[in-house]
Design goal:
The longest helix has 20 residues. With about 210 residues, this protein is α/β, with parallel strands linked by helices.
Length: about 210
C-alpha cells in the first residue's frame, strides 16, 4: 500500500514510519483527518483517545460521521476505518477523557487535537514534563479560509482565541502548533470541513516529517 509513498520518501523512511507509535488525542474534525493521514502513511501503532460518540451535527466535517455511525464511539469507528486502510497498523483505543493511562503506552509522539481547553493544557504540560515530541491544534472553529492555516511556533500565532489562552498559560514555553491567522468574522461556533481538514493534515505532516527526520 505504500509503494507510491516510498517513491517520494525512501525505503528507510517507510521503515521508520512503520516502527513509530503516535497518539492522537481528540478525534473530532481535526483529529479524524489527522488519523486518516497517519494510517495512510503507514504508521505502525496508533493510540486513539476520545470519550465522545458520533452525532448528526458532526457529519459536515468529521470523517467518523455518517448516518450509519451516529451513536457509535469515535474511537471504535476510526479503528474500523484504519483496519480497512492499513490492516497492519496496531490500534489502541482509549474511549475516555485523556488521563495518565495514555502515557503508559509510551507513545513516541503525541498529537493534541482536543477541544476542551483545561484538558489541552494538562496534556501539553505532561508532554513538556516527559519530553515527548508533540504538536498541538489551536482553534479551527469560526474559520473560513484554509489557506490561512499553518504550522508555526505558539508565540507567532495571531487572531486565534484558543492560542491566546494557551500563550497566556505557557508564557515561557516554546512549541509548535497548527493555527489559523484568519480574523474571526462570526461569533457562532461553526466549523468548515476544508479548514478542519487542513488542520488535521498539517498536524499529521509535522509528525510524519519528525519521524523520518526531514
Amino acid at each position: 500500500m505504500l509503494q507510491r509513498l516510498e517513491l517520494l520518501f525512501t525505503k528507510e523512511a517507510i521503515t521508520k514510519l512503520q516502527h513509530a507509535s503516535v497518539a492522537v488525542v481528540g478525534l473530532g474534525g481535526v483529529g479524524g483527518f489527522c488519523v486518516h493521514a497517519l494510517a495512510r502513511c503507514g504508521i505502525g501503532k496508533l493510540i486513539l483517545c476520545d470519550f465522545d460518540h458520533v452525532e448528526e451535527s458532526n457529519i459536515n466535517r468529521q470523517v467518523v460521521a455518517n448516518y450509519e455511525t451516529i451513536g457509535q464511539a469515535k474511537t471504535v469507528v476510526l479503528k474500523e476505518q484504519i483496519r480497512k486502510i492499513n490492516p497492519c497498523c496496531d490500534v489502541v483505543l482509549l474511549t475516555k477523557k485523556v488521563d495518565m493511562e495514555l502515557f503508559g503506552y509510551e507513545p513516541d509522539y503525541i498529537i493534541d487535537a482536543i477541544d476542551d481547553i483545561p484538558s489541552k493544557i494538562t496534556l501539553i504540560e505532561q508532554c513538556l514534563l516527559r519530553n515527548i515530541p508533540f504538536i498541538s491544534s489551536m482553534g479551527a472553529a469560526k474559520k473560513w479560509d484554509p489557506t490561512a492555516v499553518q504550522i508555526l511556533p505558539l508565540s507567532k500565532t495571531s487572531h486565534d482565541p484558543v492560542a491566546r489562552i494557551i500563550r497566556a498559560h505557557f508564557k515561557k514555553e516554546h512549541f509548535m502548533v497548527v493555527s489559523s491567522s484568519e480574523e474571526v468574522k462570526v461569533q457562532a461556533l461553526g466549523s468548515y470541513v476544508n479548514v478542519v481538514g487542513v488542520f488535521g493534515l498539517l498536524l499529521a505532516d509535522y509528525i510524519i516529517k519528525k519521524i523520518i527526520g526531514v
